[in-house]
């Protein structure tokens, strides 16, 4: 029987990714860049991002990806078939990253999935230990690398460095392509240093949670108390950290956020499992979105590139955070509508179908 809870969670995760990814479609290097006098909504949305969004949906997706690797093993009993699927996913990710958007996560997931498979059949406690070890390793490397020329000067849309990056990305379509291509090479260098360890750690935690039955029945009372305390503590600590105060604060901000994101993502899992109760009633749209997560993820790239590079290239110079959120709201409604209509005629999403056929 298909796990409806995981489908809904995956749908929430892929739609939630837009709330962080959208800024990098404007000017990738700077994520969100405020105006010289940002409105109050910027501060409010930034706080909401820090507490509920930043890294949370990415972590949730990794947890689900790790759990799906266990399900595939139970279904196929073949690591070779899983390896082939991951190779195809890696190729899709490379094409996506080089040709369209340097923020691709598919290649990272493929590499991390390969590493996760090496430990996924160990006993539960070892899986959890290795997952936390990989997370701490990635956090430690990130901490060390943060000491290399940290940038503390506030950057606004009128800053020379931002305008140079904007010109590099928008002066022509070819210039934008070259800029994206070079940035993705830098992103690939970071894979074996940081992102693969972080993603593999999260996936192994997802494997552990699946084997503990969390995606079916949720956390136990004692587990919920521990995870809730961790989510509140690490999130509060991250809110207190001002990265531009010192090099040390700058270096620990991201590792602290990783731990906060993991704890919050597990809380999301528990809440959704308890609400959905593995029943498709009232949750069909999110379930359909979860079953088409690859298609929706790639479709988001197409939509945002067309919007920022073709339809409204000056958005990066004019948009505040609330404007980005309005765009997300429109795209979110469109994607849910697309899932509803498409699912009436087809069982698998178009990209999922291609992935399946190439993996045979």
Topology as a string of helices (H) and strands (E): HHHHHHHHHHHHHHHHH
Percent range for β-strand residues: under 5%
The mean pLDDT is: 93
Instruction: Choose one word for the global shape.
Output: globular
Q: Largest beta sheet, briefly?
A: none
- Computed over alpha carbons, the radius of gyration is 20 Å
* Number of contiguous helices: 17
Helix fraction?
A: over 70%
Q: Assembly state here?
A: single chain
Separation of termini?
23 Å
Classification by helices and strands: mainly alpha
Strands, total number: 0
State the low-pLDDT regions, or none: none
Secondary structure layout:
Elements: H1 4-16, H2 18-26, H3 40-53, H4 56-76, H5 79-99, H6 106-117, H7 124-145, H8 160-170, H9 173-211, H10 214-217, H11 221-240, H12 247-276, H13 284-291, H14 293-311, H15 315-318, H16 321-343, H17 350-358
Characterization of the model:
This protein has 360 residues and is an all-alpha fold. The mean pLDDT is 93. The protein is built from 17 helices and no strands. It starts with a helix and ends with a helix.
